[in-house]
Design a protein that fits this description.
7-stranded mixed β-sheet; BFD-like_2Fe2S-bd_dom_sf; oxidoreductase activity; 28 helices; Dihydrodipicolinate synthase; FAD/NAD-bd_sf; globular; 849 residues; FAD/NAD(P)-binding domain
Amino acid sequence: MTISRADPAATQHARYDLAVLGAGPAGLAAAVTAASAGARVALIDAAPRPGGQYWRHRQGDNGASHHGWPVFQRLLRGLTHHADRIEYLPGLSVWHIERTAEEPPYGFRTHTVATDAVHASHTIATHTARDSTERVIDSRTVVIATGAYDRQLPFPGWTLPGVFTAGGAQALLKGQGVRAGRRIAVAGTGPFLLAVAAGLAEAGADVVGVFEAGLPTAFVRHPLAVARNPGKLAEGAGFLRTLLRHRVPYRTRTTVVAAHAAHAAHAAHAAHGAHGEGEVSGVTVAALDARWRTVPGSERRLDCDTLAVGYGFTPQIEIPLQLGCDTRRDIDGSLVATADCRQLSTVPGVYLAGEVCGVGGAELSVTEGRLAGLHAAYATVGATPDPAAVRRLSHRRAALRSFATALHEAYPVRPGWTGRIDDDTVVCRCEEVTAGAITEVIEELGATDSRAVKLFARPGMGLCQGRVCGYATSCLVAARTGRAPTEDDLRSMASRPIAQPVPLGALAAAAKPAAQPQQSRPNQQSLRGGRMNASAPGQPQPQPQRQQQPHRKPWHGVLVATALPLRDGSTGRLEVDFDGYSDHVSWLAENGCDGVTPNGSLGEYQTLSPEERARVVTTAVETAPEGFTVMPGVAAYGADEARRWAEQAAEAGAAAVMLLPPNSYRADPRAVVAHYREVARAGLPVVAYNNPFDTKVDLVPELLAELHAEGLIVAVKEFSGDVRRSYRIAELAPGLDVLCGADDVALELAVAGAPGWVAGYPNAFPRASVALWRAASAGDLETALPLYRALHPLLRWDSRTEFVQAIKASMDLAGRYGGPCRQPRVPLTPEHEEIVRRATEKALAEGLG
């Protein structure tokens, strides 16, 4: 198939609706989908042919050795069919991207240099610049689909010639038809080892064994994820049949602990842990315990000339970090960029697809690419996505993401590997930094995190800029300082001002004066909510606009725990008015709120049927305007049920979920962690909800720090009312967002730095509540305090049993339908109703409605 290739020189400063970075599964899907919706797309890739690492192929390849080849062929046909709207730009390496407009319509300038070739080394793909001519692509939006590369863990001898990454060995086979060696050992963890070993065996290599460090039978703990993805199981079974046919041994809880060279006479080389001089002549394999520590006496030597080793993949997120996209530590320990249900990052105009959002395989990448293409086209050319297509893709994304989570849990990287390397083992091969050098700067110079170690000992400062050693360095530093790796550790090793090596001439060209980027100014009305003046009764108030912060996480801002409109139905019972609920969500968005939390803090979900509860979420998602968060509550008595609600939220298109601890009994910390770990498998960011009064389980700061360190939660809705906890949580878990969860301490927590408020009373007073929160967050107490004093007689109902009834009564008085509650909640007593009425009417008289 002939694919039209644009002349890069003719595209300098060209204006596109969409620039897609990467022509792998996610990038191809995004480009073709966006073009089919009418967008003009620049598809930029460093490789000479499309397909990425997964579909790497030779000219004339018939796809016999590739999985998903028909999907690839359909995408190529789409690339050809939409050649009038897709400029395919192979051989261009992106080294920097900048924003040229921070307000709608957004703008981005992608800086690239031409590459002569893509060299698959033993470790990573490196791109060689052909010349110093810089090519610039301007676009309104960007889809980042830069994929991932092999994750490596150092061991004695890993720098020897003949030691390949598993992906490198496969790339040679797919791209060049060349076997990496004759007698090959395959080691590491993850199902990718099966694919590599099967491909090598089919190509005629003598595969001496596959040595899996983990215990894949852990998959039996995830029957639902497996059942929803039968094709994945069949694919793995096919690889195993190939290995069986070629009589390749498959050993679990076993790995290669050292590689050996043919000659061991060169002392200098041996001093760097290479176990000799020359190419690989053999490896030592050993059995591992559950923490991946070597079982004493289990070591044995195997002869081979090649070792292919891989411990999963590391997402390539240099570009998202350059642009300021929020990140999180994924369940497999990787640093990944955060995307919402539209694949939109926390930076407006920047969409993410594929492995940059979390490693999940080619099918998930294609699905996310299609969603990103649909929504990017809508944002640029106004092509409204087909709701049925979005639902179908979202449903498939949730199923695939659930499987990916199960995969990561079945093949984790255990911490015991750090104890298997000695001081002479090289960790950073570019700068030849050993494990001993890292330990020395920790013990002698007091370095306690990856950034400090990087500055003192220089791991990650060489040509690859930490791509190879970054993860290992972070884990090693954490192990040597007695803690788990954090998001900050990973970020410090992944942040690169220049994404790829470039000639100085390209830097000089980029430094020349260009058109000035559009400057954004803080919107004072959005920051201060229109400066509502609580001291001027009856004065009309400006309409607050929803915040358009370029880096707002989905759980930041004012998120309303929505009240449900219930009306008498034909069955004689109260029925949910879903049209009324949709209208209420729209009204909250129009009045400046940043999102809603359906089935959340008000507790009305406890009286809903499963069908009603699911429909509340889908109604909120379908109603939500661009940039408006839907973060459902997914609390349930059992972890399995809570996970299923989280999966339903993901399928509906929610951005995150909020989760109470298990509360059917007084759960201990181990049970709490297990509960959150199960729900995290759904793949959405989880906001913990600490309500020790109703659940009788207190998520104390130490327990929250443990949950965050494991990557299970991104934030906590803190309802204890103890403002002091926010400071303690910040000390123990610096990356964990503390959200205000109690209305009557909103000002105090905003001043303490809480980035969000999951609130109840904005159901009745959204404009005033938003103005209060924004003023307090900005330190404008002159505006915030009068508002707070005026609203506090109502806000303090948050800590009372009749909170929901009070909110609905205020809504009725303010002209919004609140209505009744389902039993067991009963109407307010006359005394309570009078208290709410007086406080509400006073607030309305002061112009806060």
